[in-house]
Amino acid sequence: MAVQFILGRSGTGKTTYCIKSIIRELAGGEKGPPLVLLVPEQATYQAQRAILADKKIAGYSRVHIISFERLSFQLIGKNTARPEISRIGREMIIYKLLRAGRDKLKLLAQAAQTPGMATKLAEVIIEMHQCACKPSDVTQLAQDLAKAGPLNMTTMKFADIALIFGEYADFIAEKFDDPDIQLSHALKKIPQADFLNGAKLWVDGFADFTVQQRYLLVEMLKTAPDSYIALCLDPTGIDTQYPDRCERDDTSLFSHRANLCRPDRSKQKMQVADCKADSA
């Protein structure tokens, strides 16, 4: 697994660098490893047009231009037997659970039927899914807080969240598909995906990654011998020879992206390259 980071400020040509690299691979013929370009959903069509705009490329079958949503669909498919839950549907379910379990709540009982409570809890549950947290994780946290000291508002709040989160998971099980959970399910399918095994991977256009997305990306990197990750990051702030020795500034606007360039010392050393391509 070799990973190269393409670093540069906005407009320095990171996307152009990735597109030209894919075009060079395609110009060599249709024989070769699969080529995968992972971009945000709104950028998939633009990437397809950029590749086909080159006169050397009349068409292609080796390239897979996907987003995390399309990746999830390709890995686990669409379960037509169960409807996909919408944002409003999620809030309605949570509102029902709040009313039904009002007597069980320790802190949120009085606010259970107030306007906006279901919406706020829905946002919390979405964030839990994005961070790859299960109801059991939140329950364990609430129990640990209760053991650590006297009962307080924080402990009671996490206990209530764990209760609603668990009941929500049980309610939608075998009834609805929650798109926020699909990425976690797709994670297990990556090793068996033919279009990812042995592929060359490019990642471009992301401002940041959720925990779910990072887990997926790590698994994709394991299956790809060569990977290239473009990040909107000033390369002058990164020691390209020893990226793990750079001083961390967690208050920086780009701290999350900069941390991606700091590999674990126990793992294979990653290469970091500054993008010198023309502006995209």
Walkthrough of the structure:
It contains ten helices and six strands. The chain has a six-stranded parallel sheet. The protein folds into two domains: 2-77 and 182-274, P-loop containing nucleotide triphosphate hydrolases (Rossmann fold, 3-Layer(aba) Sandwich), CATH 3.40.50; 87-176, no CATH class. It has 280 residues and is an alpha/beta fold. The radius of gyration is 22 Å and the shape is elongated. The longest helix has 20 residues, at 153-172.
What key attributes describe this structure?
alpha/beta, Rossmann fold, six-stranded parallel sheet, 10 helices, 6 strands, elongated
Given as residue ranges, the uncertain stretches (5+ residues, pLDDT < 50) are 263-280
**CATH fold-level name of the largest domain:** Rossmann fold
Assign the CATH class of the largest domain: Alpha Beta
Which structural class is indicated by helix and strand composition? Answer: alpha/beta
User: Count the strands?
Assistant: 6
Roughly what fraction of the amino acids lie in strands? 5-15%
What is the chains' assembly state?
single chain
User: Would you list the SSEs in sequence order as H and E?
Assistant: EHEHEHHHHHHEHEHE
Q: Work out the count of structural domains.
A: 2
Output the CATH homologous superfamily of the largest domain. P-loop containing nucleotide triphosphate hydrolases
Please state the CA-atom Rg, rounded to the nearest Å: 22 Å
